[in-house]
Write a structure and sequence with these properties.
Helices cover 72% and strands 0% of the residues. It is an all-alpha fold and 129 residues long. The chain has one domain (2-122). It is elongated. The protein starts with a helix and ends in a 7-residue tail after the last helix. The relative contact order is 0.18.
Length: 129
């Protein structure tokens, strides 16, 4: 049980690192401020698409990590990671209100699919005789 929990947490860590590292214009995003002093949200369609691709890649690798480290039943670990990730995304929804509706819809659809795809990649291959 502990191994499964740690596998899901490791998946979150990998997802965060990969998504942050691949996010477009990350240094520029830290310098982009609005008049109120808060960071201005990304609103350009191209930047949003790149951010979505980074999110998908991060979740794919996070699902792979959870499945690979979880031991037996890799798809169940990837599914557990996907469920917890969706709950975390729902909790962060009020902060994401600046994003367009299409981006949120694709992001919520992409997350569990990418996590399960990562779990499929982590499945052990059958040995050939």
């Amino acid at each position: 049980m502990l191994r499964s929990v740690l596998a899901v947490l490791a998946g979150f860590l990998v997802t965060g690192v990969v998504t942050t590292a691949m996010s477009p214009g990350l240094p520029i995003a830290f310098l982009r401020f609005s008049a109120s002093g808060d960071a201005a949200p990304v609103t350009d369609g191209g930047e949003l698409a790149l951010l979505l691709a980074a999110h998908g890649a991060g979740v794919l690798l996070g699902g792979f990590t959870a499945a690979a480290l979880g031991g037996r039943r890799p798809l169940w670990h990837a599914l557990g990671f996907a469920v917890v990730l969706l709950l975390a995304m729902l909790a962060g929804l009020p902060e994401a209100e600046a994003r367009p509706a299409w981006w949120l819809a694709i992001s919520f659809a992409l997350a569990p699919l990418a996590a399960l795809a990562g779990g499929l990649l982590a499945r052990p291959r059958p040995r050939r005789a």
